[in-house]
Amino acid sequence: MEMATIRHRPEALELLEAQSKFTKKELQILYRGFKNFGELSFGECPSGVVNEETFKEIYSQFFPQGDSTTYAHFLFNAFDTDHNGSVSFEDFVMGLSILLRGTVQEKLNWAFNLYDINKDGYITKEEMLDIMKAIYDMMGKCTYPVLKEDAPRQHVETFFQKMDKNKDGVVTIDEFIESCQKDENIMRSMQLFENVI
Prior knowledge:
Blueprint: H1 3-8, H2 10-19, H3 24-42, E1 49-51, H4 52-62, H5 69-79, E2 86-88, H6 89-101, H7 104-115, E3 123-124, H8 125-139, H9 151-163, E4 170-171, H10 173-182, H11 184-190
Antiparallel strand pairs: 1-2, 3-4
Helix pairs in contact: 3-4, 4-5, 5-7, 5-8, 7-10, 8-9
């Protein structure tokens, strides 16, 4: 969906405005930024979609001190809701709409989807560890205080014990949401980006 398409098809923009929590003006700004990401990485972005390599390139610019490749992969998969190997402008807007302006419930559902790597409806300790390692890698070795090698595993052990209420070795969406809602730090972090745009 190119800007020209948006200009000629205001109904597409109005539909996106109705489905998301963004105004028409905000959507136009977001589109320019989205289109520029594609152009920065690959010259022209005529298809209006961003592939995983572009996503990784974008993240490497935001986190130059670490390796953001794996986290960008997981994040890309969370934004690529139809699993076609690309993130359309619509996918991008709907994900951002939830992350920036969604209810706590919507944000927690989105986060669960991120952690549920194989999309089977459960988070395993291994999936949680994969995401946590990716976050630690992305933050880089320059974090302060310097983190021990087993920090991600310790972090996951603590969280998983809290979340896996029935001790069956997996975290369901209900367990995830209930645990997150009881954690003040998680709830505060959910509100950090509410008025970003």
